[in-house]
Write a structure and sequence with these properties.
2 copies of one chain form a homodimer.
Chain A (H helix, E strand, L loop, with lengths): L1 H5 L3 H9 L4 H10 L5 E3 L3 E4 L19 E6 L15 E7 L9 E2 L8 E2 L12 E12 L2 E5 L7 E8 L2 H4 L29
Antiparallel strand pairs in A: 2-3, 2-9, 3-8, 4-7, 4-9, 5-6, 7-8
Chain lengths: 196, 196
């Protein structure tokens, strides 16, 4: 398999990178000394009015009424059946404009450094974004959504149905956001998490 | 760079695979004819009582009181600062026991095929799982959590603070789950999404 893979033979490449079982990871293990990587592939693209990070809302709460579309690639559209029945969906996507990460960051909503994992900052060890958005319609593999806080041309990773019984427990504490959360609808992003 | 990468030189490997900017993707583009991959690396490991998928709860709603730990690798622990202030966290993880995917599946909660993206089934084009769990304590880089529905030894991808204003909109429709959701706390998984 090596020879074929190293020469870029496509079917072998798919064997190594295209499957979702352990094989690709095992091969990378061998190559890079015990670092088990996980391979994701974009399954669509997200279109929104936000072509630049500067000035966009930092959460759906700040994107009330903002409309966008999620274009699922043709190969995956059969998986959209039954999705229209849900008023909201969980969208996972790649923070494709984010670069590297720091373990302490000053969030858009705060003025002092916080631990990265206590924030939603895009520069993360694994730059995967999560937004719960309103699903208005599904037409020919294109999801029409509202209250979307995602950058235009963001690669789509996954769509899950939003189910309050699964996803919306009663939170009793929201940490450093406690006094700041109310500002989220006014707050806009800047360039702090972009490539330098 | 090629020669070094193909011979497995670690620092070059990091250049290609370890960064979170576009470089790795660009290289894979070249290699595999336009398939832009996204590379993730486990940042920790999740420990739960569920060593086998069979019989485990299928959502946190069915895992009331079940306790587990999330061991964040030492390199990332500085990012856990301030997390203790949150009663719940969003956990992203790799469905490491899942194999391939089908675009129509019969969910644990149903008896007929549904579109994959209208389900939470683990066999997905990008096998990333999402659970909102209760955070009880953070001790030496280990998160003690409750109401966890995740398989033991699952690779951790990301941790985000759970903030109702961001993550818990008022859902008006939950599609095919409408009449079935009430069963989730009793329902247990089986082997249908495992490797054959």
């Amino acid at each position: 398999m090596w020879t074929n893979w190293l020469t870029g033979c496509n079917d072998k490449a798919n064997t190594v990178f295209g499957t979702r079982n352990g094989d690709g990871v095992t091969v990378l293990d061998t190559l890079f000394g015990g670092v088990a990587m996980i391979e994701l592939k974009p399954i669509g693209i997200i279109r929104t009015p936000f072509t630049e990070p500067q000035g966009m809302p930092i959460q759906p709460a700040g994107a009330d009424g903002v409309k966008g579309t999620i274009e699922v690639f043709a190969d995956y559209r059969a998986g959209l059946k039954d999705l229209e029945g849900f008023s909201h969906i969980v969208v996972l996507y790649h923070f494709h404009r984010s670069n590297g990460y720091k373990l302490q960051v000053v969030p858009f909503l705060d003025t002092q450094p916080r631990g990265l994992f206590s924030t939603r900052a895009p520069r993360r060890p694994n730059p995967i974004g999560l937004s719960v958005v309103q699903l208005d319609a599904v037409v020919d593999g294109i999801l029409h959504v509202s209250t979307i806080d995602i950058l235009d041309e963001t690669p789509l990773i996954d769509i899950k149905p939003y189910v309050p019984a699964f996803d919306a427990p009663e939170a009793t504490r929201i940490g450093w956001l406690d006094t700041l959360e109310k500002n989220v609808s006014q707050k806009r992003s800047d360039r702090r998490f972009l490539r330098d």
